[in-house]
Design a protein that fits this description.
2 copies of one chain form a homodimer. Chain A is an alpha+beta fold. Chain A has 3 domains: about 200 residues, Aldehyde Ferredoxin Oxidoreductase,  A, domain 1, CATH 3.60.9; about 170 residues, Aldehyde Ferredoxin Oxidoreductase Protein, subunit A, domain 2 (Orthogonal Bundle); about 140 residues, Aldehyde Ferredoxin Oxidoreductase Protein, subunit A, domain 3. Chain A is about 40% helix and about 15% strand. Chain A is built from 22 helices and 17 strands. Chains A and B meet through α5, α14 and α15 of A and α5, α14 and α15 of B.
Chain lengths: ~575, ~575
């Protein structure tokens, strides 16, 4: 492992330190969550000086292991008030690993309104005035950073949303084309970066050595097996590479789990118009890229580049959850409007799930008409104007609901639901309810066995087996997030009896260890325990694992309801 | 006791029912809190159909007992998410008692946007369309109701804030001049009434009999003693009747406990300009009423009527907490601007404490300049325009802070602090921290022994004795709120060894009971236990009894900090 880079954002000073014993061997989510538990007072204000914003590559980062380039960002969340880890692709993770940096830790906060940028390279660290970058969107920031510091530098930045400390604010990463298509989206971490007045972090690994592999032969063999596994699985080898994540639109809609018009039904009549198939058709006609990787070394390649009617670049990383949130949830059926909303979110630095759900709530509250894409674009644009309407929408679904007096708001722990209804995909519903993150599909993607037939089959409409499904997935996911692997590798791992052991072989070969799969699962449990403990200290109880009353409504087409009791759920994450 | 009047706001139906055994003998806060605990699911959405809004006169209501005309309003609070009781003067309480109504219970909610009014009189109940009252402010509503239903009818109504379901929304009561100068201010109960689409409730006791007194002679004797006690105490007999509650401005400022510029210091350099003495001077010059009662039968008479420079009516019920919130907290020194802000709050139906603190936070966040009364008036006016700025301010201090990214927000359980700094008035600080209501001075007014020398003396700057002080006051206050007595009677009760027994004598004579003072204190404890239990079921823990980080800052002029640990506080309300 490398060193910790601590930056005092008030003093504009930094220092490298050895990783303390208590953090040794931890990476990604394992490191961010442990550091937050140990170093951040659980009841502090998320925008105050006591909160810390931590970026940590996974333990496989920088190695040739396929799909190991996810970066974890962690802090006390301004959205949920609990602990948060949000990971993203992009270029930063692998570069930090090569620079020997186990984590960047942003501490304290300035008393002035001046923004800084942090430039990290092989020669050292600089903390510089952000100058005219302040007030700019992520597109302009990324372009400026690539121009100034070289193409292919890693960039983490915030747009106008993070500067305003909005609860929906993301931290965006330059994608492989230098655009802000990748995002640490969930939980408002961009607001923490904004409170600390850091506009951007640039990471340049020029001149840095490759990461050391203790047993290169063993690593190579394990990685080959790993790549084969990913390429041979129908989801990671075919579905996602063919159509990107939007392949799910028709699948989830067909399953009756595609939440439509603020979770009133599971089928959207215009699903076909916003499907992965439709996107591929547009890209064929207009140009763009149907699938591309979110970070070097990815073999799944589920990202994309989407052009407008004139054939000009419109947005990238145009994904299923985004399309659902602005589409079925807010009942917008024009794909180009949805793409523009995605672009605005990337530019302002906003989580597309939180923001899409918020726009649907704005429709529920009568602020704009249902399904009106142009009105949604106008309203979202107010975030860039620093206008009051933008401060409402940009603060997310619950805030928007509270502003407008709406009592049907799909949130757990104040975070908006993603694109699968918990009543007709109960495995992911258990995850929404129980993960310390707030409603989050990526914390335990029960869609696998519920709908995709991956890792077995568990009836999506019944309770039986879904607590166990979510539990197993949450433990495995925490470990995957600690390794820095993309969540989607889970598809192949679940359907392969050698899946987990192959990951463990890569870790062992990288560090000269002799871990077992059980050790890795224990790590997963310890991460969840740390996160639960932070939340407990922040005032959360089992009662916060409840879904809102609206999920007691009967949900067509399967006419199911959310019927887990808190008592049934209470053991999900007790280890 | 009377009957319960239950109104189904969706069906527009009503029914009278006998008071169930479990509620027998309870009035005011004792009844509202017990009913909410028993009938409202603790995790429901406060604006949803499962919440109930309950109005209950105290058990002495309608009797000749001095100062017994306070009405309790209760519900799950949209502001705090916990249980709420907020009581006010006005005309409704005594009229309900004479009509034999122990409580009005508003249930369910309509699915349409049409408002209704409820008219209650001796012949029965009508639920009528609100017609053109919808969208109007409380001044217009009250005027219209008095014109239509007769001068001196009791009126409960909401303004534009309640209609928008804002968390700062009050329910206002017609005062003795038919103006909305009285308010169930705290906790956003106006939003619950708005969600249930009830614009106003009119209560007319014409033709109703007097309330029965079981032992008239004993009652008369006890009440005479009671009146003498109130009239002979320096606070209730001299200070409050002379200058109204604003008499406290100079007193609390002198004590260094007058929170200034968002709780940065305990003395406001312009305190004299907004003092009770200054108000009395203005009233002498311009006309108005220096002191008048908030309900018939009050002998303290701490309310007032304030005119503008032209000698025309500007506002009434212009009180200490209001003057502090817009004044010292937001550093506005022009009394007429503060009076206009008070008037706007009464008209829109907004809690002046929550709204004043919110305006200070808007200044902290740079939305308007510090101390700019005109800018504050313009911003507050947006509530009446249903504009986005109004939805921010009208949702209170924490919401405004969250909208603007401000991390110095003085709230406990999401409710804004009143006008006494907890670092230099620690007895009231303990109350802010531990009352189930959220920061609320009226729940246990430790200012008594801390600053006013009433009920003994406890050092306001030290911890010693202040937990016990708050505990005793919280128990006594709960009982006073159940009786329907004005909180200010506590001054006389605390300094009189016959105080409590005199109240008990009136209750015994009214109902033919033989309660002891201990019974009444046990009632106080049971109310607090019910409220704590509701909050526990809603997800609150001891951690929610914490003051925000900002109170660890040293507070001039006494340079004290908030130094109670959660462990020390945890026993305050354990009985």
């Amino acid at each position: 492992m490398g060193k910790l880079l601590r930056v005092n954002t008030r003093e504009k000073t930094f220092g490298f330190e050895e990783v303390a014993e208590t953090y040794a061997g931890l990476g990604g989510r394992a490191l961010t969550s442990k550091m937050i538990l140990d170093e951040v007072p659980a009841t502090c204000h998320p925008l105050g000086k006591a909160n810390k914003l931590i970026f940590a590559p996974g333990i496989l980062a920088g190695s040739p292991a396929a799909d190991s380039g996810r970066l974890s960002a962690g802090a006390k969340s301004p959205l949920t008030g609990g602990i948060k880890e949000s990971n993203a692709g992009g270029l930063v993770s692998q570069k930090l690993a090569r620079l020997g940096i186990a984590a960047i830790v942003l501490e304290d906060k300035p008393e002035t309104d001046n923004y800084s940028i942090i430039v990290i390279n092989n020669d050292g660290v600089e903390i510089l005035p952000a100058g005219d970058l302040a007030g700019k969107g992520n597109y302009a920031v990324m372009e400026s950073m690539w121009e100034k510091y070289g193409k292919n530098v890693g960039v983490l930045s915030i747009g106008q949303a993070g500067e305003q400390c909005l609860k929906g604010a993301s931290i965006n990463q330059a994608d492989m084309n230098g655009r802000p298509g990748r995002a640490h989206g969930r939980g408002g971490l961009g607001a923490v970066m904004g409170a600390k007045k850091i506009k951007a972090i640039v990471v340049n690994d020029k001149g840095a050595p490759r990461v050391e592999i203790k047993d290169p032969d063993a690593f190579k063999a394990a990685n080959k097996k790993w790549v084969d596994m990913l390429k041979n699985h129908p989801v990671t080898g075919q579905g996602l590479p063919a159509l990107g994540t939007a392949v799910l639109v028709n699948v989830i809609n067909e399953a009756g789990a595609f939440p439509t018009k603020n979770f009133r039904s599971g089928r959207f009549e215009h699903a076909q118009d916003i499907s992965g198939e439709k996107i591929a058709e547009c890209i064929e006609q207009r140009g763009g890229i149907t699938t591309e990787p979110c970070h070097p070394g990815c073999v799944i390649k589920c990202s994309n580049v989407y052009h407008d009617k004139e054939g000009k670049y419109l947005t990238s990383g145009f994904e299923y959850e985004t399309i659902w949130a602005f589409g079925a949830h807010a009942t917008i059926k024009e794909l180009d409007d949805i793409a523009m909303l995605d672009r605005l979110c990337d530019d302002f630095g906003l989580d597309t799930i939180e923001t899409g759900v918020a726009l649907g709530i704005a429709m529920e509250g009568g602020m704009i008409p249902w399904g009106d894409g142009k009105a949604a674009i106008d309203l979202l644009s107010k975030v860039g104007d620093y206008a009051p309407e933008g401060k409402i929408i940009g603060n997310g679904a619950l805030f928007t609901g509270d502003a407008l007096g709406v009592d049907r708001v799909p949130v757990v722990k104040k975070q908006a639901f993603p694109a699968y209804d918990p009543r007709s995909c109960k495995g992911v519903g258990v995850t929404y309810a129980t993960t310390p993150m707030g409603a989050d599909h990526t914390a335990g993607y029960g869609v696998t066995a519920n709908i995709l037939g991956v890792g077995g089959t568990i009836d999506s409409l019944k309770k039986e087996g879904n607590i166990e499904l979510s539990q197993g997935l949450q433990v495995a996911t925490a470990a995957i997030d600690a390794a820095g692997l993309c969540l989607f590798v889970a598809f192949a791992v679940l359907d392969n009896e050698d899946g987990l052991s192959t990951i463990v072989s890569m870790i062992n070969a990288r560090f000269g260890l002799s871990l077992t799969p059980d050790d890795v699962l224990e790590l997963g449990k310890s991460i969840l325990n740390n996160e639960k403990e932070f939340n407990r200290k922040a005032g959360f109880t089992d009662i916060d694992d409840q879904l809102p009353e609206m999920f007691q409504e009967t949900f067509p087409p399967h006419n199911t309801t959310w019927d887990f009791t808190l008592e049934e759920l209470s053991g999900t994450l007790k280890f």
